[in-house]
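From the shared-data thread, chain only:
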Amino acid sequence: MPKLPNYRRVKIHRSYTVEEVARLLEVHKNTVRAWLRSGLPKIDHRHPTVILGTALFDFLHARRKSKKRPCQPGEIYCVRCHAPEQPAGEMAEYEPVTEKFGNLMGICPNCGGLIYRRASFERLALIRGNLDITFVEARRRVKRE
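Structure, as tokens:
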């Protein structure tokens, strides 16, 4: 899976050429040109093409935000399927990791892989949805003295 460009590296008070953007975000020049064709605004129609830092930051941030897939109550995100899924049989297990947090685990109905969601015990009622949750005893840890 390709690495997403980190929009936080962009300085908003600076202008960039296509080559500078490619170097800064570690992408190919043609990728930046494709962004320009798909809506990244440039300063004017002269060469070399110059892009404002604020426009680049906003464009990359909006692209990343549009691809987010938040989980609804009763859903756990499957990394293999790249989508929130309701566990098979609407069953999940909650395994506490600390006193306050634990992992909600289930089986993806599409690919059969394990799916996990980090959840606090306090918010479990909001996350639960219509899931049948089994509580597993926490693993015992060896204490150092």
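The longest helix spans residues 53-66.
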